[in-house]
Amino acid sequence: MFTGLVEGMGTVVSLETQGPGTRFVIDAGKVAEGAELGDSICISGCCLTVVGIQGTCLEFDAGSETLSRTVLGDLTAGSAINLERSLRVGDRMGGHFVTGHVDGVGTVLSRDDDADWSTFYFSAPAHLPREIAEKGSITVDGVSLTVVAAEVDRFSVALIPHTLQVTTLGRLRQGDRVNLETDVLAKYVGRALNTRPAD
């Protein structure tokens, strides 16, 4: 479990094809401090397991399913990614509950910059809008954000200067793809409504 509060940006050092998957070596900087094999770390919204440690570089394996359903398959050496270690019992909950299980891939439809602030519109796969609500929470590339407008096939968020500076979202341009995870509470409410017995 994560909060969507990014601890730092990392850099993809190398990628190596291994069978149907890919081994990622990521320079995680301070996020690597105290990391142990088997730890779960959120990589731009996708929960992966640490399988190797070399100083500040952490290694992760991603299978074909993960690569095809997230933007991790788009990464190349030098790509910047958002990093967050898993939530510990007793930690402050500053964002919202994030599982690190990507629900779909969206695309930047537009970016409107106003001084150091930015408003983004993202597309969302057809099955996600019912789980996206105005003033609700959504995770974009691992960053917990508040939805400004929720429409049939798109939604918007307003980003403050700090978020633009300390996450990869500040580098996004029209046409870029992003990992999306809707609020876990919205999923359970939707599931409960869809499976409610008929009166």
Offer a few descriptive terms.
199 residues; mainly beta; Elongation Factor Tu (Ef-tu), domain 3; 2 domains; six-stranded antiparallel β-barrel; 3 helices; 12 strands; globular
**CATH first level of the largest domain: which class?**
Mainly Beta
Note the main sheet: 6 strands, antiparallel, barrel
Q: Indicate the low-confidence ranges by residue numbers.
A: none
Q: What would you say the CATH architecture of the largest domain is?
A: Beta Barrel
Number of helices: 3
Radius of gyration: 17 Å
Reading side by side through the largest sheet, how are the strands ordered? 1-2-5-4-3-6
State the CATH topology of the largest domain.
Elongation Factor Tu (Ef-tu), domain 3
Order of helices and strands: EEEEEHEEEEEEHEH
Please tell me what the overall shape is: globular
Q: Which percent range fits the helix content?
A: 10-25%
Distance between the termini: 36 Å
Number of strands: 12
Please state the average pLDDT score: 92
Q: Per DSSP, what share of the residues sits in E-state strands of 2 or more residues?
A: 35-45%
Structural class label: mainly beta
Number of domains: 2
